[in-house]
Design goal:
By secondary structure, the chain is α+β, with helices and mostly antiparallel strands. It has a domain of 104 residues: Signal recognition particle alu RNA binding heterodimer, srp9/1. Helix content is 40%, strand content 20%. Strand 4 and strand 5 form a beta hairpin. The longest helix has 25 residues. It is flat.
Length: 184
């Protein structure tokens, strides 16, 4: 009898642990979503948020198994495009960080810069990207000083990244649009 009670307690514990991760479901703005289910389906499919079972079964036009992780993140793509002139030391998509190697133009070989970009969110907004620029000034081979500077270059790079990411997002919306033909 005590064995059954022990098993029941363990099962209840596991169920409560599994349900604990569900969390609170956020509210939805009724103005953004039409009350008609057919209209909601149409909007979702046209914006690329849904999938059509028949397309998946045909095997041709669906994207089943074709994941473009980094290519689908507009901030990531825009950042790589903006700093494409610099050698990349580390690029970790899952960690949300890009670190360049030291870069120096041919004019002044004693000075070089290094850029780190951290992604704080996937949303395109001003606080989504943490961009830092480090400067290294060397008097000779063994005498270098490295410091971070907050200047206009960092602000300009961040602004260009956000602008390009917004362009990519708009292009992605157009790419995902598929006209809804209705249920036949």
């Amino acid at each position: 009898m005590s064995r059954n009670i022990c098993q029941s307690i363990i099962i209840l514990f596991l169920i409560s642990f599994a349900l604990n991760g569900c969390g609170k479901i956020g509210g939805v703005d009724a103005k953004k979503f039409p009350p008609d289910p057919k209209q909601r389906v149409k909007n979702n499919l046209e914006s690329g948020k849904g999938f059509r079972i028949m397309d998946k079964m045909k095997g041709g036009s669906g994207n089943g198994g074709n994941f473009e992780f980094a290519n689908s993140n507009e901030l990531w793509r825009a950042s790589l495009d903006i700093i494409d002139f610099m050698p990349i030391a580390t690029a970790n998509y899952s960690g949300g960080i890009i670190v360049t190697d030291w870069y120096s133009d041919n004019q002044n070989s004693n000075e070089s810069i290094k850029i780190t970009i951290r992604f704080l969110t996937n949303e395109i907004r001003s606080d989504a990207v943490d961009l830092k620029i480090f400067y290294k000034i060397c008097k000779n081979l063994n005498n270098c000083s490295i410091n971070e500077r907050t200047n206009d270059l960092a602000k300009e790079l961040k602004k260009e990244i956000l602008k390009k990411a917004a362009i990519y997002k708009e292009q992605n919306k157009d790419k995902n649009f598929k006209p809804y033909k209705g249920i036949q």
